[in-house]
Amino acid sequence: MKVLVPIKRVVDYNVKIRVKSDNSGVELSNIKMSMNPFDEIAVEEAIRLKEAGTVSEIIVISIGPQQAQETIRTALAMGADRGILIKTDELVEPLNVAKLIKGVSEEENPEIIILGKQAIDDDSNQTGQMLAALLGWSQGTFASELKFSDGKINVIREIDGGLQTIDIKLPSIITTDLRLNEPRYASLPNIMKAKKKPIDEKSPEDYNIQISPMLEILKVSEPAQREAGIKVETVEELVDKLKNEAGVI
Amino acid sequence: MKLSEEQIAFYDMAKDFASKKMAPNAGRWDEEKIFPVDTLRELAELGFGGIYVNPDLGGSGLSRLDSSLIFEALSHGCTSTAAFLSIHNMANWMIDSFGSAELKESIVPDLCTMKKIASYCLTEAGAGSDAGNLKTKAIKNGDYYIVNGTKSFISGGGSSDVYVTMVRTGDKSSSGISTLMIEKDSPGISFGAQEKKMGWNSQPTAQVIFEDCKVPVKNLLGNEGDGFKIAMKGLDGGRLNIAACSLGTAQSAFERAVEYVGDREQFGKKIQDFQSIQFKLADMATELEASRLMLRSAAIKVDENTPDKTKCAAMAKRFVTDLSFKIVNEALQIHGGYGYLKDYPLERNLRDVRVHQILEGTNEIMKVIISREILKENK
Ligand SMILES: Cc1cc2nc3c(=O)[nH]c(=O)nc-3n(C[C@H](O)[C@H](O)[C@H](O)COP(=O)(O)OP(=O)(O)OC[C@H]3O[C@@H](n4cnc5c(N)ncnc54)[C@H](O)[C@@H]3O)c2cc1C
């Protein structure tokens, strides 16, 4: 059984985000980029499935600029088998990404696709769900635990206020939540070995997909500065402020 | 200097490990004098136990340049632990490079996983800078050497499993010195009390005492009389790594200072608006850049085994450890009184990098080496 893991190159989670002066987006030049943390969890889960003998091959895909190849190398160094880079310099939106992954899926015939639940740059949280719809596969989103048994996956999902356990039939889409696992570091020797693993280069046209954005970004701005709080003297004053200033009670 | 994609990956991985698994604990390791063997073993699982050791025996087979990047990255997390790892790597490499096939196979794989830990024993009470004058004696008797003498200041002393020890087997000259690998459970080995130190507190330092200590002849590295050369070859690489540990620490102190000057306000403005602070930052950044270039260039020379490699490694060690100490001190100064408190890592950084100007050859001895090489070249 093959597993497909789509991974995205995003601004590193440690970087302090700055908005461009013309409010058209965030500053990306000269900024450290790395693999979306939820995708790292997806790669780790795929590797664990391979180590357990559940899957036989791990293919990672990244859709993005040439440099997204570095992100693919990171996944190969962690333990994925080969990579596919679908090269585009356009801004990629969830539906386009889902269509491209569907294209790859039709060529590779995996039985599971594991994605991050969202990318930390645009926080869309849509790609996995759209992909499940396009392929007509079952989906286990926000997974915090997976158990495989003949043709089925038992998925524990993180939902508001608790955990939900579902059984889904393969082929399936899984999206990862933070607690699914702790991704490993790629060891020094494995970083060297990753150099020799194959990466195929493709373009969106190879899958007959036009990457034209369907959303128009009007403005990107900094969150409002948090203002300093005040001290109240009495409970009455607090209640009064909550009623009349904050309007919450 | 352009790094390859893999070199960037080594650096990033090491830095990530350092910030997640070392930095949060470094203060406690220092204060409670904890030697974090578990963390070292985690590092070893990732290939850091034998960075430039042969892959056939479990090493990572990387270059000195790679190694300098790795130690620079790791010292962002904990200077003292990174520096200990560099000593272990030096000792492991010496066994891998100069031990017999049988000896190597018996020990190097365990050193690469850090199931076993290695120390380097050159210094004696009467032979510090003048290491060639060492007195620890080894007399061959059948299949064993009988070793007598005391090594001082041994990093890992008392904890390590293996001691790569320089001993005298011949005349008083430096060609009377040989290198033996001595195991912790050898009969006749004992250890002094743990030294109380200014810094480097996440690793033990103690005397290693040999009293009629029996060491199998097969534990000899290279040939009899090669010991001093082997010790110095180890140090060419060791000095690069120690310099790298200073550089990474200075870089992290600098980054902290840049952050701080944007937050701290005095006289109604941020202290980054004072020109004297700006000029300090400019000097620190310039000195960091110069240090980095010098270190990496020396590492490439050691990799390529150029004739001037010893001189350049000595230059890099002297320059980078002196400037890094100064940079850390400036970063502490920029933090004012807070820099002096243990709430910030700067005072620990300062205590830790201070010793890099003293060990693996004092910075004065680096000048002795550099000038000797210059005058030799000019003959
Ligand atoms: C924390 C710590 C860990 C250590 N770990 C190890 C270890 O693991 N293994 C090991 O073998 N050693 C180790 N050492 C020892 C270290 O390498 C020596 O301390 C160092 O080489 C200096 O020797 P010394 O202390 O005897 O000083 P000395 O040689 O007595 O030097 C005293 C002063 O005289 C100067 N000086 C000496 N000779 C000259 C000269 N010819 N020209 C100009 N100036 C000169 C020196 O630069 C220094 O300033 C460690 C030391 C410390 C502090």
Q: What does this molecule look like?
A:
- The complex is a heterodimer of chains A (249) and B (379).
- Chain A has 249 residues and is an alpha/beta fold.
- Chain A is 28% helix and 27% strand.
- Chain A has helices at residues 37-51, 68-78, 94-108, 127-135, 188-194, 235-246; strands at residues 2-6, 9-11, 33-35, 57-64, 82-87, 112-116, 138-149, 152-159, 162-169, 172-176, 199-202.
- Chain A has a nine-stranded mixed sheet with strand order 9-8-7-10-6-1-4-5-11, with helices on both faces.
- In chain A, helix 2 packs across helix 5 and helix 3 packs across helix 4.
- The mean pLDDT of chain A is 94.
- With 379 residues, chain B is of the alpha+beta class.
- Helices cover 53% and strands 15% of the residues of chain B.
- Chain B contains eleven helices and ten strands.
- Chain B has helices at residues 5-32, 37-45, 64-74, 79-98, 101-112, 227-263, 275-304, 309-334, 336-340, 346-354, 363-377; strands at 118-121, 137-141, 144-155, 162-168, 177-183, 189-191, 205-216, 220-221, 265-266, 269-270.
- Chain B has a four-stranded mixed sheet.
- In chain B, a hairpin with a 2-residue loop joins strand 2 and strand 3 (144-155).
- In chain B, helix 3 packs antiparallel against helix 7 (275-304) and helix 6 (227-263) runs parallel beside helix 8 (309-334).
- The longest helix of chain B has 37 residues, at 227-263.
- Chain B is globular.
- The two termini of chain B are 33 Å apart.
- In chain B, 51% of the residues are buried.
- The model of chain B has no long low-confidence stretch (mean pLDDT 97).
- Chain A binds chain B through residues 34, 70, 73-74, 77, 185-192, 195, and chain B through 5-6, 8-10, 12-13, 16-17, 45-48, 51, 55, 60-62, 70.
- The total strand number of chain A stands at 11
Ligands in the model, by name, code or SMILES, are: flavin-adenine dinucleotide
The share of residues in extended strands of chain B comes to 5-15%
Strand order of the largest sheet of chain A: 9-8-7-10-6-1-4-5-11
SS elements, strand count of chain B:
10
**Percent of sequence in beta strands of chain A:** 25-35%
Spell out the helices and strands of chain B N to C.
Answer: HHHHHEEEEEEEEHEEHHHHH
The overall pLDDT of chain B, averaged over residues, is 97
Query: How large is the radius of gyration of chain A?
Result: 21 Å
Trace the largest sheet of chain B across and list its strands. Answer: 1-4-5-8
What does the oligomeric state look like here?
Answer: heterodimer
Low-confidence stretches of chain B: none
Q: Residue-averaged pLDDT of chain A, rounded? A: 94
- What structural class do you assign from the helix and strand content of chain B? alpha+beta
Characterize the overall form of chain A.
globular
Helical content class of chain B: 40-55%
Order of helices and strands of chain A: EEEHEHEHEHEEEEHEH
Q: What does the main sheet of chain A amount to?
A: 9 strands, mixed
Poorly predicted regions of chain A are none
